[in-house]
Amino acid sequence: MKRLLTRGAKWILSMAFLLSLTRTANAFDAIQTPNGGSTVGSYTQLADVLDKEIVPQAVEAILNTFPNAFGYLKECSTGVGLKLVNNSSSSSLASFTTGSANGRYENGKVTYDLKYSLTVNVAYLDFNDGNLTDNCREEIEHFVLHEMMRAFCTEALTTGILGGSTERFPMWFVEGMSQACSGGCYNGNDFVNKGLGITETTSEENIRNKITSSGNKLTGGTPNSRQATGYLAVMYIGQIASGKGLSAENITAPNIALGLDRVLNKLIYGMSLDAVINDVTGGEYESTSDFEAKFADSNSVSFISNLIKNVGTEGCGSIVGGDLTLTQLLPREQKACSLFDLNTQTPCVVNRYPSDVVVLSGGTKTQDGEMPISTYTIVAPQEPEGDATAIEEISAELISTEYYTINGERLAEPQRGVTIEIKRFSDGLTIRRKHIVK
Length: 438
Fold this sequence. Notes:
By secondary structure, this protein is α+β, with helices and mostly antiparallel strands. Helix content is 37%, strand content 16%.
């Protein structure tokens, strides 16, 4: 079993440094009101390690994985309640529950408080002198990563998560995004290998058959469709959005994380999921429904085959930590974090936001929405790494207003004295940059 070692640690540090450079904190403090009495009982050591280590480390890992999308939250404070249950009839080790409360008008708009609760089922935990065993600690870390990614999406993409049935994101996207963080191939929650039956040796034809069967397809409405096929679909979207191509050697955790950071950044800015999918795929998939219908084409099936091979038999397939083959994703040390601060003395925390924060933020499946804070921006993607193999310049007169950059953003209408530099990289990517010629 592989552990979080040098390569993953270096990637986390580099992403943390990027976070400090790309986003100026716009901190806000939610008023946090406990709702209900403590459920911790005799499990004080478990509550303590969740509060001081596992939850804040999961929050920090997600911030480092998606610096452009969630960076605005880094210095904010919100609260989450802790509910411990002992229920062997439930199949869930952990879950994150959210809801709206106290609807009201502020600044001419409807707004709400948000209720957050993390539930952990002790029936599935093993202890040694009150402490979690190593295997059990690893498993709950994966589950908490999954649930805290759900918390981030609820916080920043509230309308797409909690909105009406026609507004909400499809469940395959929501669950797939969480699985991308916790690891869609993790042994303790493996819907890909065990649910779909897709392994390193599965042929592309059989992959296609498995992800298009009635219960497994993205619109199938089953755990397999949401957490297995959804995971594969989200990872595929992330790889395309990264701009790094679909060759096997480029299917890596950092590349997929880069792409999904762009996807989330655009959604939080207010673009609809339909528009984002069309944008980051360069029109290959025109909308969410078009993507759902086509997910099983040659490109997606080839990607799935290569992804599973890159994860290997021991890996969990998480984008957290910078390596698809890792299984231990979180440092095991104390961490202070005011964002999603776990309150072990109540099962639920009600968060009331400042009036200048848009609670019902983000795009929905089909409609554009509002960004959460007025200074939120779409961060321009970095150039891919690699050596330029050729450079050419095209005069402005030859470039029409339909000329686009690699990430789909329209350039300003060219003027005389402006040239476009085109760099072709060895991995097949093309970067176009506008230069003023003096």
